[in-house]
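Input for the complex:
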Amino acid sequence: MNTKPEVIREGFNIAAYNTMGISATSRFFAEVDTLEELKEVLAFARDQHLPMYFLGGGSNVLFVDDYDGLLIRMNIKGKEIQNENDDHLLLKAGAGENWHELVMYCVEKGWGGIENLSLIPGSTGAAPIQNIGAYGVELDQVFVSLEAIEVSTGERRTFSKEECRFGYRDSIFKNELKGEYVICSVVLRLQKHPEITTSYKALTNALAEKGISKPTIRDISNTVIEIRESKLPDPSKIGNTGSFFKNPVISKDQFHTLQKEYPEIPHYPAGDEIKIPAAWLIDQCGWKGKRFGDAGVHKMQALVIVNYGNATGPEIWDLANKIQHSVQQKFGIALTPEVNIIG
Ligand code: EPU
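Predicted:
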C-alpha cells in the first residue's frame, strides 16, 4: 500500500484553480511539478481507487459539485528545441507551461505557427485535448506529437498527430481515451520564415483598419490580443471559461430551412455540413448581457457565460441549460458544451 505522497492535500478549495472561479472542495488535490511526483500520485490514487481529474489552467471546466476524488494540477514545465534546420524547428514544451506565455516566447524568437492562438487561456498540455483554435488556426496545423502517461499503469506513451485524431475542438482524449492518459509534454513544428494566416474575417478587418498590409507574426499576435481583449472577458477579472458551447454543425437541409426564415443567419462550410456560430443563436434568443444573480451571459460575446463573483456551479449550469433549451425551441439545434462538466 502506498503512503499518501506529501504533495497531496486533503479537503482543498479549488476556487483559485478554475477560471470560472467556482468554489468547490476536492477531497484530494495535488499540484505536480515532475514526472516522478506524477507517478507517485497516480500510484496512490490507484491504491485508493480514487477517481481522478487532471487540471491544466482550469480554463475549460465547470465544477457543479464538490469533487470526491483526486484533482491533479499538471505543472510540469520546460521548453526545449528537439531538432532544427534552416526552415523549421521542433519545440518540446512541458504540459504545465502557460499556453499564452509559450506563444509569446515563440513570437519573441520569430518562430511562426501559433501567433493566431495568442491569449487563449489554459495550459500547453490541455491544448491538444480540445485541439484549441482561433482566428483561422487550429493546434493540429503545428502539432507533431505528445508524450503522455497511462493513468492505469503509469507507463509512458508517445502519440503521433494521427493517433490524436484531431477534429474541431476534439481529439481522442475527449472520446475513446477520455481520462485514460495524462499529457506531459507536446512537440510543435514552428517556422523560421513564417507564413502568415489572415483568413479569418475579423482578423483581416482589424489589420486593414490599422493599415497593416504585410503583417509580421508580432502584428498578428498583437491584433489577435486586441480583438480578444475587446470582446472576451479577462478571467482574472470576471470568471469565465471562454466559449461555453461548441459551434453546432447541422445538415445542409436543416440549414436551408432555417435560412428561409432567417436569411441573415451566419454560416461556414464544415465538410458536407454547415457550421453555425452558437453565439449568433444565443444572441437571437435574447441572452446577451442577461444576468441572474452572479451568473450571466457576457455583454460582448453571447457564447461566454460569466461568474460576476459568487455564482455557484449549479447556478452557472442552470443558466447554460436554459440557454440550450431556448436555442433548441427556437432553432431546433442542440448546443453541446465545450467545457467539461465535473461533479
Ligand atoms: N455573433 C453574434 N453575437 C455575439 C457574438 C458573435 O451574433 O455575441 C456572431 C457573429 O455573426 C460573428 C459570429 O457569431 O460573426 C462568430 O463570432 P466570433 O468571430 O466571435 O467567433 P465564435 O464562433 O463565436 C470561435 C471560437 C473562439 C475563438 C473565435 C475566433 C468556438 C466555440 N469558439 O468563436 O474560441 O476565439 O472563434 O476564432 O469555436 C474558445 O474556444 O474558448 C474561444 C473563445
